DNA sequence: CACGTTAGGTACCGATCGGTAACATCGTCA
DNA sequence: TGACGATGTTACCGATCGGTACCTAACGTG
């Protein structure tokens, strides 16, 4: 983030825009937010946005990668909490997801929302979101392999269905809805494919 | 649908608009489609739309109920194919879902998409979508009960997570993606909570 | 001091958005 | 024939969309 030399100084316009976009894009969806609202919320002006980013789509792409950093930070936390124990790592993530999905203004995963927001499969914003989703699947396949699943890809796919289901169901049903049980379901699915611990 | 007296006559403007909205809203999302595009695609004019529907939101609400009729029609099919056998009914629906999600232009469930399209929980279109989703859950709870699940609501919630996961994952991953396994996962979940048949 | 970088301010562009007013046209039925 | 309801035609409204041109103010560095 362009590493300000003095930490007490006002952040750059680009950083303020990124922060503003992160808030607004996540809460309201990318297409629903206008650039005018972004710059107003950031306390800067429109030319500053277009000096730092090529276009709204460019800013949206940056937003998605920024957002996904938060996901990997979460994964880093469960890894640190349960080193060398992929089983516990996965379950810790799913239990945390069940908790988060009960927040009254839960908005799920920004990548998933972006994919539904852009039906055109060739749109650059959508392609970036899909690329980042594939990375998540790769990570899950790896963990499923370490957990001794008979078919790691099959287990990973089942976990993805539960994750994505929780992302959207957390928005569709008032808490505590079906998303509150995503941890339970993940346990059942893992046990069925790896056997009891 | 206002039942035209002569089946060979040109359908009413309202019906043409409903059909056009069904196509466009489903393929591109409600907010992404303009009323101008709807009426052009229907071969009618804008005043005809506003004579038959209060507003775009009103048309969108009608679209959602129309769309959900297709869902219940599907359910009626699997019920007819497996009468008195809720287990087989559920699995037939999930296997069909796995197949449909592999279509190259799959766009998931219009209700789910509408909920993500309208982050404001008080928006009438979103409330209608949420209401229809609750009906689906009620139906699943009933089936889970008939299947002898130890906790019918828990099984229904798990199946909802898988369903909704398949709806969105079918769009996020090129086929055959994780959504292709939603039938397998449903089998595991049901077996774990009802025992083998 | 002179300079280039980074920023803000203002005003604007063409396009599209949802929605409406006023009037013309058609087919149907009494 | 005459009246009526449904539809088409045209033009328009104010608001918002993403994006840009032009100029000015503050700043650190040589």
Can you offer a commentary on this structure?
2 copies of one chain form a homodimer. In chain A, about 70% of the residues lie in helices and about 0% in strands. Chain A folds into 2 domains: about 10-55, Arc Repressor Mutant, subunit A, CATH 1.10.10; about 55-195, Tetracycline Repressor, domain 2, CATH 1.10.357.10. Chain A has helices spanning about 15-30, 35-40, 45-50, 55-80, 85-100, 110-115, 125-145, 150-170, 180-195. The first copy, chain A, has 9 helices and no strands. With about 200 residues, chain A is an all-alpha fold. In chain A, α1 crosses α2 and α5 packs antiparallel against α9. Chain A binds a DNA duplex (30 and 30 nucleotides) through α3.
Explain the layout of strands and helices.
The structure is a homodimer of 197-residue chains.
Chain A: H1 13-28, H2 35-42, H3 46-52, H4 56-81, H5 86-100, H6 110-117, H7 124-146, H8 152-172, H9 182-194
The first copy, chain A, binds a DNA duplex (30 and 30 nucleotides) through helix 3.
Task: List its traits.
homodimer, 2 domains, Tetracycline Repressor, domain 2, mainly alpha, Arc Repressor Mutant, subunit A, disordered N terminus, elongated, DNA-binding, about 200 residues
């Amino acid at each position: 983030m362009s590493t300000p030399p003095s930490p007490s100084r006002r952040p750059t316009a680009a950083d303020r825009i990124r922060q503003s976009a992160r808030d607004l894009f996540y809460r309201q969806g990318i297409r629903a937010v206008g650039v005018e609202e972004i710059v107003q919320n950031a306390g800067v002006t429109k030319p500053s946005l277009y000096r730092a980013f090529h276009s709204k789509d460019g800013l949206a792409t940056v937003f998605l990668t920024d957002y996904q950093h938060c996901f990997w930070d979460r994964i880093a936390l469960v890894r640190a909490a349960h080193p060398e124990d992929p089983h516990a790592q996965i379950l810790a993530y799913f239990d945390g997801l069940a908790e988060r999905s009960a927040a009254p203004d839960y908005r799920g995963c920004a990548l998933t929302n972006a994919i539904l927001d852009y039906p055109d499969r060739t749109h650059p914003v959508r392609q970036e979101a899909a690329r980042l989703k594939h990375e998540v699947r790769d990570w899950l396949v790896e963990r499923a392999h370490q957990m001794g699943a008979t078919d790691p890809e099959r287990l990973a796919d089942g976990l993805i269905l539960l994750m994505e289901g929780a992302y959207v169901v957390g928005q569709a049903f008032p808490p505590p809805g079906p998303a509150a049980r995503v941890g339970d379901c993940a346990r059942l699915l893992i046990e069925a494919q790896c056997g009891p611990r």
